[in-house]
Specification:
Layout lengths: L3 H14 L3 E12 L2 E10 L4 E11 L2 E12 L5 E6 L13 E4 L5 E3 L5 H11 L3
Length: 128
């Protein structure tokens, strides 16, 4: 990835290519050289919503995400999953990375996850 703008183009291409996504909006995007952020709100084929936020930097090794939250909820507003790296669960083995699975209180260890991985999960788990 050559710069932050190129990474934003890459992520948007992943969103557009995902057959489960029927509508999406860029709530916020910034690209300044090698640093950037995005917040996208996606509507899935089954009515679920996915809000994606990431603050990132382009480094020699690729993309380094410094802050993220990927919030997936059903059409009724019930949390399905939220992957994030907020620093509010220091006792977890994968701190600060974790997942809220099915409810805010059900917090489990989880390795760092990328926007691309979340989009792949959505594509495989959401039924038409």
């Amino acid at each position: 990835m050559k710069d932050a703008a190129a990474y934003l183009v890459h992520i948007k291409a992943q969103i557009i290519a995902n057959p489960q996504i029927v509508h999406w909006v860029a709530v916020r995007e910034e690209a300044q050289g090698d640093m950037g952020l995005f917040r996208y709100r996606l509507t899935l084929h089954n009515g679920d919503l996915l809000e994606m936020f990431a603050h990132f930097q382009i480094v020699e090794e690729g993309v380094q995400v410094t802050k993220y939250s990927f919030h997936w909820q059903d059409a009724n507003g019930q949390l399905r999953k939220r992957w994030d790296n907020a620093t509010h669960h220091p006792g977890l083995s994968t701190y600060p990375y974790h997942i809220h699975d099915g409810s805010e209180r059900n917090v489990l260890p989880h390795e760092q996850i990328s926007a691309e991985e979340v989009l792949a999960i959505i594509s495989s788990k959401v039924s038409d």
